[in-house]
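Late entry, evening session. Most of the bench is empty. Finally got around to the prediction I had been postponing all week. Sequence below, unchanged from the version circulated by S.P.
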Amino acid sequence: MTSANPSVHKWQNSIEQFLARPVIQHAIVVLIFLNAILLGMETSPWLIEEFGELMSNVDHVILLIFIAELVLLMLARGLNFFKDPWCVFDFIVIAIAIIPASKSLAVLRSLRVLRVLRLVNKVESMKRVVRALVGSFASLGSVVGLQLIVFYVAAVVSTNLFGKDFENYFGNLGASLFTLFQVMTLESWADGVARPIMEKFPSAWIFFVVYIMTSTFVVINLFVAAIVDSFSNLEPDAADKQKADLKNEEETEKARLLSHMQTEFMGIKTELHEIKVMLSSNQR
């Protein structure tokens, strides 16, 4: 069984280390910001008329730099590139930017603004936030299920209670769901929905207060709790990673010192052998 060519790994590691340099990463972040500014400027007809060609050229140069970075990273990692979700996201964003924006694909031109989201991959604190959100999906699923149950029960009850007299708001299940969604967001719920109904049903405030307390305050706080819990779970992982990195650095340092000591020992051994040879020749 033949071993892998070490020279291949050497140049791949060199590319990865080059791209991981703080100067390179900071430059990419600056280019992402600049690209975001250019995309915003392209929404102005006056700026397009005055500086459209210049902005287009700068945009193309930035895109070429992004492509070069992506190609180098693919060469360095090989197929492992597609095992990293962040790399796959970058690949999709850049691929969208490369596709010609014909009439049938004109919407893809607007999606160029997704390049700004590459900042998430470049800023570690943002990556942690995304990891926490993704990690909270399991808990959020249960909270969403509870929210849907409350939402559905309240819609059925409100349709039965107020549907005949307020068909625009609660005439059917769909209308009730939409109205209750408005109430849940607290958008004009009192003057726009509750008070007109209370003129006909004075006790209707009980339904709205209970619904708002349940759907808005309780369930929304459960959303926040699930996300905060996911953040707290990330902290030990980060600490463990930091400890592992320190341990690896210590082991690397120990290996370096051991290698240095072995080299020194071999040098001393060689010098002793030469001295022994010289003494033997002198005795003769």
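Two things to note before I forget:
The chain has twelve helices and no strands.
The first helix runs from residue 6 to 19.
Will write this up properly tomorrow.
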